[in-house]
Amino acid sequence: SDVGSQKERVVTEEEWLQKWEMGNIGFHKEQEHPLLQKYLDVLLNGRSGLRIFFPLCGKAVEMKWLADMGHSIVGVEISEQAVKEFFSEHSLPYCEEPVPEISGAKMFQSTSGNISLFCCSIYDLSSSIVGKFDGVWDRGALVAVNPCDRQRYASLMINLVEKNSSYLLVTVSYDPNKHKGPPFYVPESEIKSLFG
Ligand code: SAH
Predict the structure, then answer these.
(1) Ligand 1 atom 14: the closest Cα is on which residue?
(2) Does ligand 1 come within 6 angstroms of the Cβ of 122?
(3) How far is the C-alpha of 61 from the C-alpha of 29, rounded, in Å?
(4) Binding site annotation covers 77?
(5) For the CA atoms of 155, 117, 109, 43, what is the dihedral angle to 10 degrees?
(6) Is the CB of 125 under 6 A from ligand 1?
(7) Which EC number(s) are documented for this chain (predicted)?
């Protein structure tokens, strides 16, 4: 298919913040994603106590679900509203602290310590700040990234994972001439060239 119609599209950070303010968050789901339930074994691969990364996390309920299974969760999200709603909707006490390496960024951490959400742009992160991960749940993340930023996003993600990690990626398949996105249509061939 022709993805030309989406290639130039840019959604600014300000527009994302506005979506949260307006409650225009149709992407948020109250139930754990059925594909995460289905492929949980692939993500865990027999391991316990993993460090799992949620890029562009919103207030994804799967973060609480995996934390309750004993994993430690790190997310990144530009909307502070989203991060605060996550903790309040799950009645999780948290503390808030600056991130010295990133000007203007804050880290919100559950008091129990197993969920840490960075409030900043994902492009501000590096493995020296957040470490490396055993698993990634990428839903509404690669497909939400502006098409012009995909290469940068993929390179960063590759840098943030351990050698023996599992990366679950959810994409959407549709005719890109019929919707402007996000979520954007990312063809399988592009995923292969981005992640190798
Ligand atoms: N993964 C979540 C949210 C998907 S929507 C879920 O499954 O529900 C994409 C989210 O990415 C939005 O909440 C938006 O505010 C956030 N976002 C967009 N650009 C970002 C960036 N550069 N860095 C961090 N978060 C970003």
Answers:
(1) 16
(2) yes
(3) 8
(4) yes
(5) -70
(6) no
(7) 2.1.1.67
Nearest atom within ligand 1 for CA of residue 145: 19
Cβ of 56 closer than 6 Å to ligand 1, yes or no, is: yes
Ligand 1 contacts CB of residue 142 (under 6 A):
no
State in Å: Cα 56 to ligand 1 middle.
4
In the block, residue with structure tokens 């300000």: 14
List pLDDT tens digits, range 104-156: 999 999 999 999 999 999 999 999 999 999 999 999 999 999 999 999 999 99
Query: What ligand 1 atom has the least distance to the C-alpha of 13?
Result: 19
pLDDT tens for each residue of 50-101 = 999 999 999 999 999 999 999 999 999 999 999 999 999 999 999 999 999 9
Instruction: Identify the CATH assignment for 13-25+32-41+48-195 out of 3.60.21.10, 3.30.1330.80, 3.40.50.150, 3.40.50.300.
Output: 3.40.50.150
Domain boundaries, the chain: 13-25+32-41+48-195
Residue 1 structure tokens: 């298919």
Q: What pLDDT, on the 0 to 100 scale, is given for residue 168?
A: 98
Residue 60, Cβ neighbours under 10 Å: how many?
26
Strand 115-119 to 72-77 pairing: parallel
Contact criterion met (CB below 8 Å) for 52 and 134: yes
